[in-house]
Amino acid sequence: MNIPDDLRYSTDHEWVRVDGERLRVGITDYAQDALGDVVFVKLPEVGDVLDQGGSAGEVESTKSVSEVYAPVAGTVVEVNTELDQTPERLNDDPYGEGWIFAVEPAAPDAAADLLDAAAYRAIGEG
Fold first, then answer.
1. What's the confidence (pLDDT) of residue 55?
2. Which residue, 1, 30, 90, 106, has most beta carbons within 10 Å?
Protein backbone atom coordinates (compact mmCIF):
# COMPACT_ATOMS: atom_id res chain seq x y z
CA MET A 1 0.00 0.00 0.00
CA ASN A 2 1.36 3.41 -1.01
CA ILE A 3 1.34 5.93 1.88
CA PRO A 4 3.36 9.07 1.02
CA ASP A 5 5.21 10.56 3.99
CA ASP A 6 4.46 14.18 3.02
CA LEU A 7 0.67 13.90 3.45
CA ARG A 8 -1.70 13.86 6.42
CA TYR A 9 -4.48 11.27 6.76
CA SER A 10 -7.91 10.78 8.29
CA THR A 11 -9.10 7.55 9.86
CA ASP A 12 -11.75 7.52 7.07
CA HIS A 13 -8.96 7.05 4.46
CA GLU A 14 -8.80 10.56 3.04
CA TRP A 15 -5.46 12.28 2.50
CA VAL A 16 -4.62 15.97 2.81
CA ARG A 17 -1.80 17.87 1.11
CA VAL A 18 -0.97 21.37 2.33
CA ASP A 19 -0.99 23.59 -0.77
CA GLY A 20 -0.27 27.12 0.42
CA GLU A 21 -3.26 28.29 2.46
CA ARG A 22 -5.53 25.59 1.07
CA LEU A 23 -5.65 21.87 1.62
CA ARG A 24 -6.01 19.45 -1.30
CA VAL A 25 -8.03 16.31 -0.46
CA GLY A 26 -8.38 12.87 -2.00
CA ILE A 27 -8.85 9.23 -1.03
CA THR A 28 -5.95 7.00 -0.11
CA ASP A 29 -4.48 4.14 -2.08
CA TYR A 30 -6.04 1.79 0.49
CA ALA A 31 -9.51 3.31 -0.11
CA GLN A 32 -9.33 3.17 -3.91
CA ASP A 33 -8.10 -0.43 -3.75
CA ALA A 34 -10.94 -1.44 -1.40
CA LEU A 35 -13.50 0.26 -3.67
CA GLY A 36 -12.34 -1.39 -6.89
CA ASP A 37 -12.88 0.25 -10.28
CA VAL A 38 -14.26 3.78 -9.75
CA VAL A 39 -17.00 4.67 -12.24
CA PHE A 40 -18.44 7.93 -10.84
CA VAL A 41 -17.46 10.69 -8.41
CA LYS A 42 -19.98 13.09 -6.86
CA LEU A 43 -17.99 16.25 -6.17
CA PRO A 44 -18.82 18.94 -3.63
CA GLU A 45 -19.66 22.41 -4.94
CA VAL A 46 -17.25 25.33 -4.77
CA GLY A 47 -18.46 27.42 -1.84
CA ASP A 48 -19.79 24.47 0.17
CA VAL A 49 -18.98 24.83 3.86
CA LEU A 50 -17.89 21.48 5.25
CA ASP A 51 -17.84 20.23 8.83
CA GLN A 52 -14.95 18.00 9.84
CA GLY A 53 -16.14 14.42 9.41
CA GLY A 54 -19.17 15.51 7.38
CA SER A 55 -20.00 14.26 3.91
CA ALA A 56 -18.12 15.98 1.09
CA GLY A 57 -19.14 13.74 -1.83
CA GLU A 58 -19.39 10.16 -2.98
CA VAL A 59 -17.34 7.67 -4.92
CA GLU A 60 -19.18 4.98 -6.85
CA SER A 61 -17.36 1.85 -7.95
CA THR A 62 -18.28 -1.44 -9.53
CA LYS A 63 -18.48 -2.81 -5.95
CA SER A 64 -20.25 -0.10 -3.93
CA VAL A 65 -20.91 3.56 -3.20
CA SER A 66 -18.80 5.18 -0.49
CA GLU A 67 -18.97 8.58 1.17
CA VAL A 68 -16.04 10.97 0.99
CA TYR A 69 -15.71 12.75 4.33
CA ALA A 70 -14.18 16.15 5.00
CA PRO A 71 -10.97 15.57 6.96
CA VAL A 72 -11.07 19.20 8.14
CA ALA A 73 -13.70 21.91 8.47
CA GLY A 74 -13.61 24.63 5.85
CA THR A 75 -14.92 26.02 2.58
CA VAL A 76 -14.51 24.24 -0.76
CA VAL A 77 -12.47 26.50 -3.06
CA GLU A 78 -11.78 24.12 -5.96
CA VAL A 79 -13.00 20.77 -7.28
CA ASN A 80 -11.36 18.37 -9.71
CA THR A 81 -13.89 18.52 -12.56
CA GLU A 82 -11.63 16.19 -14.60
CA LEU A 83 -13.10 13.37 -12.50
CA ASP A 84 -16.47 13.92 -14.24
CA GLN A 85 -14.99 12.48 -17.43
CA THR A 86 -12.21 10.31 -15.98
CA PRO A 87 -13.25 8.99 -12.55
CA GLU A 88 -10.73 6.16 -12.93
CA ARG A 89 -8.00 8.68 -12.02
CA LEU A 90 -8.88 7.85 -8.41
CA ASN A 91 -7.59 4.34 -9.10
CA ASP A 92 -4.69 5.26 -11.37
CA ASP A 93 -3.23 8.22 -9.47
CA PRO A 94 -4.98 8.69 -6.08
CA TYR A 95 -2.30 11.07 -4.74
CA GLY A 96 -1.86 13.12 -7.90
CA GLU A 97 -4.39 13.66 -10.69
CA GLY A 98 -7.00 11.82 -8.60
CA TRP A 99 -7.40 14.59 -6.01
CA ILE A 100 -11.06 15.40 -5.32
CA PHE A 101 -11.35 18.91 -3.89
CA ALA A 102 -9.43 21.73 -2.22
CA VAL A 103 -10.62 23.45 0.92
CA GLU A 104 -9.72 26.66 2.70
CA PRO A 105 -9.58 25.36 6.27
CA ALA A 106 -11.56 27.04 9.04
CA ALA A 107 -8.45 26.78 11.27
CA PRO A 108 -4.99 27.54 9.84
CA ASP A 109 -3.36 24.51 11.48
CA ALA A 110 -6.22 22.06 10.79
CA ALA A 111 -3.99 19.52 9.02
CA ALA A 112 -1.79 19.21 12.12
CA ASP A 113 -4.61 17.34 13.90
CA LEU A 114 -4.65 14.60 11.26
CA LEU A 115 -2.56 11.43 11.24
CA ASP A 116 0.96 11.46 9.87
CA ALA A 117 2.04 8.65 7.53
CA ALA A 118 3.42 6.46 10.34
CA ALA A 119 0.20 6.70 12.37
CA TYR A 120 -1.92 5.99 9.28
CA ARG A 121 0.23 2.92 8.48
CA ALA A 122 -0.30 1.72 12.06
CA ILE A 123 -4.09 1.78 11.79
CA GLY A 124 -3.87 -0.17 8.54
CA GLU A 125 -1.81 -2.85 10.24
CA GLY A 126 -4.05 -3.03 13.33
1. 96
2. 90
